[in-house]
């Protein structure tokens, strides 16, 4: 049961639920990001709002059904404070519109009528998520409950602006061949981005491509609403709606890859700054006398703990440690990739020539030297996390990207470091968890950017 929704509406009586919802809506009107629906601004800081209470309630009920937080009309009524009549009326509309279907749960040991369960109908529209990364473009076709129906991807190691558009159109076209009933397209892109305009600005190491108006291009080609956000904000949204943060109001999503990015969930909403820029935890300085970062600051976390740098250290260390060691075959505890290496190759050769991945090193047996490298990485990451935790006081930290490859011991050690050093020491330890959607959090998050608009009442 969603904690704060039920809390907000627990005193509801006739119409009070709608009033609460309306208050929620108005509050949203003042703090929601100026995302757009088909290019139309939905809400601004002035508090203007074009949502009616009924639209808000419809979005809320659809969200609770799609996320499976509520499975019956009674549960919906209890969770929202809306009257049973209001819930019944809205659910009836959903059923007529083909958004929601009823299913009778067969109970073998309980007398009486079987409960009627509500779920997203197979006839309901689907959403497409588009993820734009440095090395690939992926698209996914999902139900409103985030069940993956199909996905497409294109990988590259060079790119022009024209190819970027062509790849986006290609993966989306292929999904549209499978499904025509689409509510909208959600986009998650590497930053920096202008989320209000739907433009990728000037990402570093992105083949010199700058100022790409992705949303405009997609809207023009497909005549569908397009919803655009930063990749880690999108991942945070996916975890909030359907993942490990679904019952958490405040959490910090941290994605470590060749950069270190983050997304903040505050008060049950993904935080968007007035400029739409995502929180850059990777550029928190952990040493003011450290090396100069491209951002202009010194000693940024990203300079010490990004996957690329840690991997280089591991390759060097493991190469030395395992110099001359022979692959013992598939039964050996070494990584799968290593075992695919040519028989008789040394681990040192493999590391240098075949390129053991970060995931390989996480799975491989550790030496004192690699343990030390991982510990150093965790110390660096925890330094920036503690700073963030002391400011935000989240309920949870969610790890994504290459952290998904981490051994649970590494996750546990990071949790230990953060809890030792955060300013508030009480009986409520701060959990550190891996993302429910793993390395797909950003991709599923892209689709969530679209479905979230339905949950806000634009259905
Ligand atoms: Zn920096």
Number of helices: 16
Largest sheet: 5 strands, mixed
> How many runs of DSSP E, i.e. beta strands?
16
CATH topology of the largest domain: Nucleotidyltransferase, domain 5
CATH superfamily of the largest domain: ATPase, nucleotide binding domain
Strand-residue fraction? 15-25%
Determine the mean pLDDT. 83
Number of domains: 3
Q: Radius of gyration, Cα only, in angstroms?
A: 24 Å
Low-pLDDT ranges: 6-49, 321-347
Based on CA inertia axes, which overall geometry fits?
globular
Pfam families: ROK (PF00480)
Protein name: ROK family protein
Function: Transcriptional repressor of xylose-utilizing enzymes.
Family: Belongs to the ROK (NagC/XylR) family.
Structure in words:
The protein is α/β, with parallel strands linked by helices and 459 residues long. It folds into three domains: 3-120, Arc Repressor Mutant, subunit A, CATH 1.10.10.10; 126-240 and 442-455, 2-Layer Sandwich (Nucleotidyltransferase, domain 5); 246-435, Nucleotidyltransferase, domain 5. Helix content is 41%, strand content 17%. It has helices at residues 3-8, 16-31, 53-66, 73-80, 84-96, 161-178, 214-222, 231-241, 302-305, 307-321, 336-340, 347-354, 358-363, 368-392, 408-421, 441-455, and strands spanning 36-37, 40-41, 100-104, 116-120, 126-132, 136-142, 148-155, 182-189, 193-194, 199-200, 226-230, 251-256, 260-266, 269-270, 396-401, 432-434. The strands form five sheets. A five-stranded mixed beta sheet has the order 7-6-5-8-11, with helices on both faces. Helix 2 (16-31) packs across helix 3 and helix 10 (307-321) runs antiparallel to helix 14 (368-392). It is globular. The two termini are 23 Å apart. Residues 6-49 and 321-347 have low confidence and may be disordered. The structure holds zinc ion (ZN). Residues 283, 293, 295, 297, 300, 302 line the site of zinc ion.
């Amino acid at each position: 049961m969603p904690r704060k929704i039920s809390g907000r509406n627990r005193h509801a009586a006739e119409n009070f639920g709608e009033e609460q919802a309306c208050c929620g809506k108005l509050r949203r009107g003042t703090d929601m990001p100026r995302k757009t629906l088909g290019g139309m601004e939905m809400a601004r800081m002035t508090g203007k709002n074009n949502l009616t209470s009924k639209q808000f309630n419809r979005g809320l009920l659809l969200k609770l059904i799609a996320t499976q937080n509520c499975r019956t009309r009674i549960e919906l009524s209890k969770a929202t404070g809306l009257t049973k009549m209001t819930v019944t009326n809205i659910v009836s509309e959903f059923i007529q519109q083909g958004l929601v279907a009823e299913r009778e749960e067969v109970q073998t040991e309980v007398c009486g009528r079987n409960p009627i369960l509500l779920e997203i109908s197979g006839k309901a529209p689907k959403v497409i998520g588009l993820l734009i990364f440095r090395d690939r473009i992926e698209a996914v076709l999902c139900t409103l409950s985030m069940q993956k129906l199909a996905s497409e991807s294109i990988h590259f190691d060079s790119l022009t602006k024209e190819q970027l558009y062509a790849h986006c159109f290609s993966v989306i076209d292929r999904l549209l061949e499978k499904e025509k009933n689409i509510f909208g397209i959600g986009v998650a892109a590497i930053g920096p981005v202008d989320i209000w305009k739907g433009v990728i600005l000037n990402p570093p190491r992105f083949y010199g491509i700058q100022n790409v108006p992705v949303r405009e291009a997609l809207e023009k080609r497909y005549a569908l609403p397009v919803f655009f956000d930063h990749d880690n904000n999108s991942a945070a949204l996916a975890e909030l709606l359907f993942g490990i943060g679904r019952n958490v109001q405040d959490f910090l999503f941290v994605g470590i890859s060749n950069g270190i990015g983050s997304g903040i969930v505050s008060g049950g909403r993904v935080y968007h700054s007035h400029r739409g820029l995502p929180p850059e935890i990777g550029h928190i300085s952990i040493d003011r006398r450290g090396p100069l970062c491209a951002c202009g600051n010194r000693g940024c976390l990203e300079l010490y703990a990004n996957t690329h740098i840690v991997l280089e250290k591991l390759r060097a260390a493991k190469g030395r440690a395992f110099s001359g060691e022979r692959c013992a075959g598939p039964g050996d505890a070494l990584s799968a990739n290593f075992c695919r290496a040519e028989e008789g190759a040394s681990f040192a050769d493999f590391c240098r020539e075949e390129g053991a991945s970060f995931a390989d090193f996480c799975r491989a047996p550790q030496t004192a030297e690699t343990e030390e490298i991982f510990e150093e990485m965790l110390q660096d990451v925890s330094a920036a996390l503690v700073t963030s935790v002391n400011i935000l006081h989240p309920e949870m930290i969610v790890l994504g990207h290459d952290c998904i490859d981490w051994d649970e011991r590494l996750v546990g050690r990071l949790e230990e470091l953060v809890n030792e050093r955060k300013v508030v020491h009480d009986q409520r330890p701060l959990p550190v968890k891996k993302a429910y959607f793993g390395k797909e959090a950003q991709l599923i998050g892209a689709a969530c950017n679209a479905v979230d608009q339905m949950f806000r009442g634009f259905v």
